[in-house]
Amino acid sequence: MILFSCSDDLNNSSLNEDVTPSRAINKKGYADGVNYSLNNLKVNPDLVKISQENVTIKSSEDKMKNGIFNFEILSNEIKEKLIVGNVLYFKTENNTYLRKIKTVSNNGNSYFLETSEAYLGDLFSSGTIEFSVNTQQAEKAIKSKSNSLVALGENYDKNFTFNIINLIKEYSYEGMVFNPNTSISSTFNIKIGFGNSQNLPNEVIAYIEFNTIINPYFKFDGNFNKKINHNFIEEVPTNLLDQLKKIELDITIPAGDILGDIPAKISIDEINFPVEIEANIAKNSNLELNVAGKLKVGFAYYNGIPNKKSHIIYENSMKNLSVAKSNLTGEIISDMGISIIPKITLLNTNLLHVNGNINLGLKSLSIGNGGLNNESEFLTKGEFYSLGKFSVNSLGVSIYTTELFKNNKELWNIGHLTQTFTLSNFRYYKNSPIPCSGLNSYSFNVALDYKYPIPGKIITDNLEITYDVYADNGSVLEKEKTIKISPSNISLKEFNFNLCIPFRRINIYKTAKTSYLKNIKIKDANGYVALGIIDPILGTPYTQIPISR
């Protein structure tokens, strides 16, 4: 009997006819710079798919955005599915709505629905969506009349390029010629996974991969002592700048008859290319740096997947190709930073947003005494830095945020010049009668003479000072006190700054008149260090400096 029953069950074709086919999508494809893959993506069997092909829409877009849908049914099979609690997948020409049905009323074939927000988990029960967009190969989509990417596998002419940054042009600044010579292209990658009975995705992996070439070139006609700050994105022609600062790629992933097309959007809200150059040059000089490589930065978020932990994605293959053999008499300090704010949206709704804020750049310091061929006559250092912050939001609520803290990678460090400068002739002026900290510390205006080994170099940023303060009876009031000071009245020879100095409290009514500064060390923003302050009369460092109030 058991054998008979099993034989009949396995061979009864009518049983197979009663089984509801699994609504799973498995598709892969490529077009216009978009690779997409739908892997066993299972759709809610109670999903009600509505579009202009099977209904006549009577609601305005504003009404539908508020969850109210009015339409006339052209297909009888839809009527059976319009049940409270079912999920509505409603596509119009401009938008895609994913809503849960709250109320249903009708007058003949005319239906009126009130709905509430639905989650991605109401649409997909399992499987993954993956896609990547190469911005270089997506330019055709930006230039197309529809301004959309429809991944249908058609053959397109791929002879076009699109770079996030492509600045290869010389700029002149009163004796300096500078060419950023920088090109950066990128690829966006995202994978979204779904689990049974989960409203939110159980997996989101998103990262951006940059292909980066940075080869700045500096040339000086002669004497040059300046600091320049400029956002070079302003040098991009206005028509291209509009594209750069608001790139928006509409991607359509074909999901077949079950869902039609799944829309997504990738945009770059903002791009900046700030460059800071400080140059102190004595005579004709030139310098060229050559750096290239790839940077991958992003995150992997897992929600309830065993043995998987959310983490940062970071790979940096940037490397120094060469430091050109150039003549340099003086110093060049540069910081070329690039800031990009990308955003990824799925289904053109507020169901899922992936936002990022990425900074990357190249810092360099080069000091030369006439040539780079002799390592004892020059010093050059360079580092690549990056910083990223990402967040995942669904229905306006943050579900995951991660930050990649600043990562610096040294690309080269050649030469042996010691970065020192001299400070001398410490002098101070009348202090404030009002205490600057507590009741026994007073503020003093201090002046110092200074000299760098680079002709014409001046102080341009804040300094860091470390010192000890001793009382008149020899007791220690402050040990290795380190603070930032802001220079003022800067000239080629001297500058001023302010110090708050403590004094010994004798009793409740009296405070000592004199304190002593010892072991003074001052460092500038670029790493030049002065150990001690020189007495201009003796020509040797002060052992201590008395401060009297």
Radius of gyration: 34 Å
**Global outline:** elongated
Beta-strand content: over 45%
Given as residue ranges, the uncertain stretches (5+ residues, pLDDT < 50) are 1-21, 145-162
Mean pLDDT across every amino acid position: 82
Count of helical stretches: 7
What can be said about the biggest beta sheet? 12 strands, antiparallel
Structural class label: mainly beta
Q: Return the domain count.
A: 3
Task: Give an overview of the whole structure.
By secondary structure, the chain is mostly beta strands. The protein has three domains: 45-122, Ribosomal Protein L25, Chain P (Beta Barrel), CATH 2.40.240; 126-415, no CATH class; 422-548, Immunoglobulin-like (Sandwich), CATH 2.60.40. 8% of the residues lie in helices and 56% in strands. Strands 1, 2, 9, 11, 12, 13, 14, 15, 16, 21, 22 and 23 form a twelve-stranded antiparallel β-sheet that branches. Strands 10, 17, 18, 19, 20, 24, 25, 26 and 27 form a nine-stranded mixed β-sheet that branches. The chain starts with a helix and ends with a strand.
